[in-house]
Amino acid sequence: KFLAVSDQALLKISSSAHVLRRRLSGMAPTGGDDFTSILRTPAWLLVFFNNMFFGCAGFSIVLPSLWPYLREMDATPRFLACVVAMYSVGEGVGGLVCGKLYAMRPSQAKALLLTSMFFGLFAAASYTTARMFGNSAAQGLVLASRFFSGFDNGARQTIEQTFLGTMVPAKDQTTVSSRLSSFALSGIMLGPAFGAPLQAVVFTVPGMGLQIDGNNGPGLVLCFVCMMNMLATATYFDPNDVFRRNGVTADDPAATDESSPGQASAPSTIAPAPSKLGVWTCYAVFALVNLSMASLETVTPIVAQRLYGWGPCLHPSDCHFDIRQTYVNLLLTSGGILSLTMSVMMACFLGKIIYSREIGAICLGLGTYVLTNTMNVDFGGYLPAWRFVIGYLMGAFFGGMLRGPNISLLTQIVGPHQKAPYMGLLFAIGALPRVVGPFAFVELLMLPPSLEPVDFPEVYTGPLPRTWLLYGSQAAVYAGMIVMVAMARAPIRRHIEALEAFSRHSEPLLPSKAISSSKRSIYDGQVPGLPATPSCVREGISGIRSVSVRSISEVL
To answer: What pLDDT, on the 0 to 100 scale, is given for residue 482?
Structure first.
């Protein structure tokens, strides 16, 4: 009992001495980077924002010209669907692979990022030059290029979100994650704008005979963007410098979740294991967020065209301009702006309010999905245009409330354990709805029998689709998810409270090098030079010796 009391007293002394040492060295006890002010955003976080923006822009920049590009290769519409889905497949694979690699080598975040960007550069170059190799080979190159572009983006999101989860305090997680999401949404919205000017550009690359035009020009833009991202990451992102400013080192398990070979990490062995219920709840919510995005992006233009005659002409060169041809683009653009607005609000002030209330925010967002999908059910065989538009805009606006809080909640649930595998699996699961969702949505729209035919000149002629199965099934899924989240709320809160209690009582007090060198003596009870003694006495002596000698030497 005397040894235990003495050990606790020395731990308190060493804690005070460690705080004093950090203050004398010019570091705040809670870390060096300030995440509360946008104006004081660290340089490495600006690099992450830049990478996220252009990584997501790589998804949308090619969409307007993808089908014309494939048509010149004699591709079929089914192959177009495969090419679009292949991006999400690559995104899922990139998240899984890089999550595993980052877990094994957490100090190599920069190298992993640069490697994934190299794959993105290769994909962009392949997309640009595909037409040089004949139709069959060109189709294969386009398919492979979209896979590796997705791989690059999935790897970026996994590594950067894991690094944020490690370095950003829990109270700032929602705010910073929402800022990252706002750059992702901006990239998706503005991606086509980068490729639009290329529609007026036609030139041939000297010495290659490669023609650059509006179809493959977006690939050339992506080549330039990937090189700029690699340069910015190599120049301004230094993980070791980030660790140093925040008072840790790359070998500190508290910073990187990495322990020396053959040695046990204290946080990983003592802290409560991540709640499986909480982790899978976050995975399911993230999948439904992407399912909603797939619905808004994929099926909305089809529904608007076949219900109201909105959208482009089947043969643009043969029809006269009608203002209704712009309604779909206007609707999608307005939804994107509203979604971005919510993300900016989350980044500026809502994130601080939602901290520790993430589950309530998630339920509110899911409840909005239930409401908007219910509004889009054609009760009695008729769906007014005003109800369809309001439902779409509400879903786009409140959907921005889900991504940041959900990722923040997952980070809190994982706690001090390795976050990379969880983030990698998160983005892999999130990619699945974007792969299968578009195909399922079209089938759900066409399956119910039509009540009457419609004729919208130069836009659509055929059966009037029913929407009750498409939107009613989504409303039921989101309602079931609300019940699941509500049932998991209490266990998740108890788990987070247990992690917080562990953090208060086991915060690392010694410098990382001392911890690394003394792990075996502290946790194995083997202190060089000490005779064999009963285990409780030996642990008490080893604790006194390791804490007192190393903490006093550090102060001196």
So the answer is: 96
